[in-house]
Amino acid sequence: MPKVHVTETVLRDGQQSLIATRLRTEDMLPICPKLDQVGYWSLEVWGGATFDACLRFLKEDPWERLRKLRKALPNTRLQMLLRGQNLLGYRHYADDVVEAFVARAAENGIDVFRIFDALNDLRNLETAVAAVKRSGRHAQGTICYTTSPVHDLDGFLAQGRELEAMGCDSVAIKDMAGLLTPAAAEKLVAALASELTIPIHLHTHATSGLAAICQFKAVENGCQHIDTAISAFAGGASHPATESMVAALRDTPYDTGLDLELLQEIGFYFKSVREKYRRFESEFTGLDTRVQVNQVPGGMISNLTHQLREQGALNRIEEVLAEIPRVRADLGYPPLVTPTSQIVGTQAVLNVLTGQRYQSITNEVRQYLRGWYGRPPGAVNEELRRTAIDDEPLIDDRPANHLQPELEALREEIGALAASEEDVLTFAMFPDIGREFLEQRATGKLQPEPLEPPPDEETQICGPAPTEFKVTLHGETYHIHITGTGHRHQAQRPFYLLVDGVPEEILVETLAEVEVTPGGPAGLLSSPRGDSADSTRPRASSPGDVTTTMPGTVVEVLVKEGEHVEAGAPLLIAEAMKMETEIRAPISGTVTAIHVEKGARVNPDETLVHIEQ
Question: In angstroms, rounded to a whole number, what is the distance separating the alpha carbons of residues 65 and 50?
């Protein structure tokens, strides 16, 4: 048995799982010389949520990060996580975008592409795998592990054989939720090892506390590659600790040969680094065995908690956790991994908060039920499908077959803001935040979110001391501790809070001159208007008043005043919890008033559009 090889995840999935992907490049580069000495099989440094987080929060160019890491790690393979035809976004891209993205990622430094599809629909991997092979890099096909009435060993073995036939250089078992048990890991790896001639990698999260045992059993049964995270970013929603697995395998036939003392030195470096990011720590970073029952990954639970708190409904978390398996069953048991975890989770929240299942259906669920994400693992609820898409045609072949080439149109749309092909691809992945990033870069206004509230007097909220108070919203009481705020003259001013001890950030848009008033909670902010602009919207009181079921942001206004609409016609698209929902006409008639515009924040009791019969 050859020695076991290690992929280190601290620079990507480890920090993504524990500090919301906020680790900055400046804190990666100093330790790179030592990481490069270790002898890892690979370092996972890119992909997943890192691209989004770099643009949205850190105001870093993700391509420049990759180039810096490539230069700083000349002796180690660099690895990324790629969502097949979704790349790093939340929709399928045309083949020309996938091919261009893979080519530029390889050129900028990626050696190993771990490619997966959320539905295990391997048709969605074909273009990416072929592009990686053309680049001369390592294509790693992925099996997303889950359990359900429609997932079994034979199915996973068939996927492994298909990935090998597709030309993949290795196969990864991606246990994103920590569902594997030692017995299941032993059985699955042994079966794959007997069927495949290419290496097997195991990626498993420590959420349920079983990951390290699963890795050892996998190694004993033919797995030669394991994913770990250096101890400072290990455990809980992350992965088994690198140092622990190296020690566990030492002096066995599977000895990794890695220097434990060097790894410990690296671990202490990241221990001090993690302290800088304490405001991004989640309360759900520890062991949580509930995943073995509800299959909700630790990161997903954290997101759900945050979303429900925003809706004033944190007390309904158990209802949502109970609803998630029901929604998953209705959708044909998709594995809960990006983007299906968001699709299922958000729909479950809507079902609970509206009080009626599928009264409001997100656009992503509609697209899923049409087949735009691929083939569901099992049969979907046909009654739900009819409700969601009526008689719209279904997609039963590879979804990307229906997408026209789009790269040239993207180049034209972003225009001179794109200084390189990489900039065009940044815009392709995230049109809104990508454009904003490129505009801010062009004007020299890139400003990352602070790690700590600035200590100067200008940024204090009420004198030298933080403000603490309690608020009650929809019957739920929260303890608020405001630790700081951004500059008072920012158009959207960030406030940094502890809500029941959990770090949060809110943005307050200035609608009138706001004064910072020393004193207690009542003196936090005083405005001459005494109210927000949103309060000028009339309250819903008639059948023609169009409202939203959940607080959110208007993404598109689809109608104009004077336009005749039929009942059920889409009027607005609103985004809540990263998913889009159409707001439809409750009656037929003429649109006589529109009280919102694109980008407006909206609440359930407001009239957004009025229709006269």
Answer: 10
- Has this prediction a pTM greater than 0.70? yes
Contacts of range 409-418, beta carbons closer than 8 Å, 24 or more positions apart: 410/97, 414/438, 417/442
Output the CA angle 359-365-370, nearest 5 degrees.
Answer: 120
- Interval 235-291: pLDDT, tens: 999 999 999 999 999 999 999 999 999 999 999 999 999 999 988 887 667 788 888
pLDDT at residue 481 is higher than 80: no
DSSP strand pairing (225-228 vs 200-204):
parallel
* Contact call for residues 226 and 205 (beta carbons, < 8 A): no
For residue 545, CA distances in Å to 244, 408, 538, 560 come to 60, 42, 9, 15
CA separation for the pair 212, 425 (Å, rounded): 37
Write down the pLDDT at residue 296: 78
**CA neighbor of 450 nearest in space, from 461, 462, 459, 440:** 459
SS (HEC) of 524-586: CEECCCCCCHHHHCCECCCCCEECCCCCEEEEEECCCCCCEECCCCEEEEEEECCEEEEEECC
Are the CB atoms for 484 and 454 separated by under 8 Å? yes
Q: Using omega within 30 degrees of 0 as the cis cutoff, is the peptide bond preceding 339 cis?
A: yes
- Cβ atoms of 128 and 84 closer than 8 Å: yes
Structure tokens at 451: 């790690």
Tell me if residue 502 falls in helix, strand or coil: strand
